[in-house]
Amino acid sequence: MISVTIIGSGNVAQHLVSAFAKSDLVEIVQVFSRQKVTSIPAIEPSKIVSEYTDLKLVDLFIIAVSDDAIAAVSSQIPFANMLVAHTSGGVAMGVLDSKHRKAVFYPLQTFTKNKPIVFSEIPICLETQHQSDYQILETVAISISQKVFSINSEQRKALHVSAVFVNNFVNHLYQIGNEICIENNIDFEILKPLILETSKKIETLSPKQAQTGPAKRNDNTTIESHLAFLNNENQKEIYKILTQSIQENGKKL
Ligand SMILES: NC(=O)c1ccc[n+]([C@@H]2O[C@H](COP(=O)([O-])OP(=O)(O)OC[C@H]3O[C@@H](n4cnc5c(N)ncnc54)[C@H](OP(=O)(O)O)[C@@H]3O)[C@@H](O)[C@H]2O)c1
Known about the structure:
Layout: E1 2-7, H1 11-21, E2 26-32, E3 48-49, E4 60-63, H2 70-76, E5 83-86, E6 101-107, E7 124-128, H3 131-142, E8 148-150, H4 153-183, H5 192-201, H6 207-210, H7 214-217, H8 220-229, H9 233-251
Parallel strand pairs: 1-2, 1-4, 2-3, 4-5, 5-6, 7-8
Antiparallel strand pairs: 6-7
Bound molecules: NADP nicotinamide-adenine-dinucleotide phosphate.
C-alpha cells in the first residue's frame, strides 16, 4: 500500500479522500485541516489533524489548499525530502518548498464538495521534479482514474488557460443566455437540449467542424439584427468579439 496524507479539507481534498477510500493500492493515513474539522466523509475522525506537528511520515503528501497558500503550507510539513504534490492547474511546481521532492497531481475537473463525481473519468495531470518519483505518483493516480497524463508546468498553464475558455467562459455565456431569456419571459429550459447537443458533438467532431451559426455562415443581416436587438452594451461587445473571432477563424486554412 502507498501511504498518502491529504492537506486541506475543501472541494478537491474531500473528493480525493472519497476516491482513495475505494482504492486497494492507497491508504489515506491522515487529513490535515487547519480549522479543526471533525467530520469528512470516508475518513475516521481520529485521522483528521489540525497541527502540522501531528503529521506522520507517509510516501506522499497531497496539498489541496487555495493556490496562494500552497508554498507556505509545503514549508510547514515537518519533514524533509518528502514527495509533496499540489493539485493546482495554475501554480508552478517550483513554488513547493525546496526541502521536498516536488510534484503536481492536478485533477482536471470542476469540483464542489457535496456534488458527487465519477473520479475514474477525471483526467489527472502529473509532473514530478525527479523522474524516479513519477512511478509512485502514477500508481496513486491510476488507482482512482483511468485517464492519467504526464504534463509539465508550461503545458499545465496552457491547459488551465484552455479550461477557462471551455468551462468558465462558456458557462458565463450560458448566464447571458439565461438573462436574455428572463428579460423576454422565456423558460431557459428550452435551450438545454441545444446546450447538451453542442457539448456532445465534441466527442466526434473538432470544435471547428462543429461550429454553426450566423457568424460561421457570414449571415450579416441576421448579425446586424441581433446587435440591434441587444440593449446591454456588455452583451453587444461580447457578441461582436465572438462573431469576429469565428469569422477570422473561418478564413484560416
Ligand atoms: N475546485 C476545483 O474545481 C479545482 C479543480 C482542480 C484543481 N483545484 C485546485 O485544488 C486546490 C484546492 O481547491 P479547492 O477548490 O478544494 O479549494 P477550497 O474548497 O476553497 O478549499 C481550500 C482548502 O485550503 C485550506 N487553506 C486555505 N489557506 C490555507 C492555509 N494558509 N493553511 C492551511 N490550509 C489552508 C482551506 O482551509 P479552511 O477551510 O480552513 O479555509 C480549505 O481546506 C487549489 O489549488 C485549486 O486550484 C481545484
